[in-house]
């Protein structure tokens, strides 16, 4: 059994195996309906418990489908309906119960510490569905999408991030170390990635490039990523933050400095950080990106259960 909490803690070889498995499984789903189970039914009879302490559309639905396609079942519990927290039951007791009834626990939460505590108390795998510091399922799936569209290993591509240094970017930085790709970040001066992340990159003998100018960051990019300026866990002054990011919007004029067949990706939901014409235009692959979550998350689940082929 293996947890899937942060990309930085997972060996690069395992991440690559997840992507290869996803590619094989996806290629076999062409003529199947959404809820038809994969031939080998690898997780038949298993129950995955999902819990969301914050909103989710894509993660919730894509994991539901992923779980069903593997032959397992899923129940989504609401944090405010459990005894944990409001009813005063300890996290350790809740973890014990989850481990007795369920085979895996999938959690989206506002607290990295809570994921950590659950991981210590559960005897079943835990998967991080987004925390303040990380969105590992999203980013691993995005690496898959990039390689699928560009038909090249991501290590041969220039990847650019325009926007906030948030959970998604943290996972993208971790991916840049694990998959060894070139990462340019474009963000305002006071919003650079935190020192402990830059130190980790350095310790891992990799480098990321930070530009406080969107154009310089996007120059010659094969892929441009963006995300909302104000994330779910943001507690600060959102109006000020949006103002500070005004010059870090992905527009068609910014896309002009990228490579000729560059693509635009965004995990969604979106805000003002990308113009409508880019989001819906020729560079955008955001719908394919969202759909690939199903395929990669199936292989993440199989990794957690030690069932990767
Ligand atoms: N991209 C993503 O995780 O979307 P949701 O918040 O809708 O799950
Ligand atoms: N950075 C965003 C991602 C949403 C999927 C957030 O945390 O709200």
Average of per-residue pLDDT values? 97
Which structural class do you get from the secondary structure elements? alpha/beta
Order of helices and strands: HEHEHEHEHEHEHEHEHHEHH
Give the biggest beta sheet: 5 strands, parallel
What's the number of domains? 2
The helical percent reads 40-55%
Distance between the termini: 15 Å
CATH superfamily of the largest domain: Aspartate/ornithine carbamoyltransferase
Number of helices: 12
CATH class of the largest domain: Alpha Beta
Bound molecules: phosphoric acid mono(formamide)ester, norvaline
Notable traits:
single chain, 309 residues, four-stranded parallel sheet, globular, binds phosphoric acid mono(formamide)ester, Rossmann fold, 40% helix, binds norvaline, alpha/beta
Short summary of the structure?
This protein has 309 residues and is α/β, with parallel strands linked by helices. Helix content is 40%, strand content 13%.
Please give the structural blueprint.
Layout: H1 12-27, E1 47-52, H2 58-69, E2 73-78, H3 91-101, E3 104-108, H4 112-121, E4 126-128, H5 136-150, E5 158-162, H6 167-178, E6 182-186, H7 195-203, E7 209-211, H8 214-218, E8 223-226, H9 238-244, H10 252-255, E9 263-266, H11 276-279, H12 286-304
Parallel strand pairs: 1-2, 1-3, 3-4, 5-6, 5-8, 6-7, 8-9
Helix pairs in contact: 1-5, 1-12, 2-12, 3-4, 5-6, 5-12
Norvaline binds near residues 130, 227 and 232.
């Amino acid at each position: 059994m293996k947890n899937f909490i942060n990309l930085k803690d997972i060996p690069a070889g395992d991440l690559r195996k997840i992507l290869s498995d996803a590619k094989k499984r996806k290629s076999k789903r062409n003529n199947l309906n959404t809820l038809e189970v994969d031939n080998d039914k690898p997780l038949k009879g298993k129950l995955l418990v999902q819990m969301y302490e914050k909103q989710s559309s894509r993660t919730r639905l894509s994991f539901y489908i992923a779980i069903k396609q593997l032959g397992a079942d899923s129940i989504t519990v609401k944090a405010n309906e459990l005894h944990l927290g409001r009813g005063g039951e300890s996290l350790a007791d809740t973890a014990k119960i989850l481990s007795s009834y369920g085979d895996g626990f999938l959690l989206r939460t506002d607290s990295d510490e809570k994921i950590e505590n659950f991981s210590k108390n559960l005897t079943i795998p835990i998967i991080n569905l987004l925390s303040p510091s990380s969105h590992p399922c999203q980013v691993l799936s995005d690496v898959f999408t990039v390689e699928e569209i560009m038909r090249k290993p991501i290590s041969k591509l220039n990847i650019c991030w325009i926007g906030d240094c948030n959970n998604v970017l943290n996972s993208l930085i971790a991916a840049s170390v694990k998959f060894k790709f070139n990462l340019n970040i474009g963000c305002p001066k006071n919003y650079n990635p935190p020192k402990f992340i830059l130190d980790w990159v350095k310790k891992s003998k990799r480098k990321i490039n930070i530009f406080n100018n969107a154009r310089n960051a996007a120059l010659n990019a094969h892929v441009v990523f963006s995300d909302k300026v104000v994330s779910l866990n943001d507690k600060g002054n959102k109006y000020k933050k949006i103002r500070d990011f005004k010059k870090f919007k992905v527009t068609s004029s910014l896309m002009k400095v990228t490579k000729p067949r560059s693509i635009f990706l965004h995990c969604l939901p979106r805000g003002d950080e990308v113009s409508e014409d880019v989001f819906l235009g020729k560079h955008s692959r955001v719908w394919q990106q969202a759909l690939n979550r199903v395929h990669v998350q199936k292989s993440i689940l199989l990794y957690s259960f030690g069932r990767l082929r």
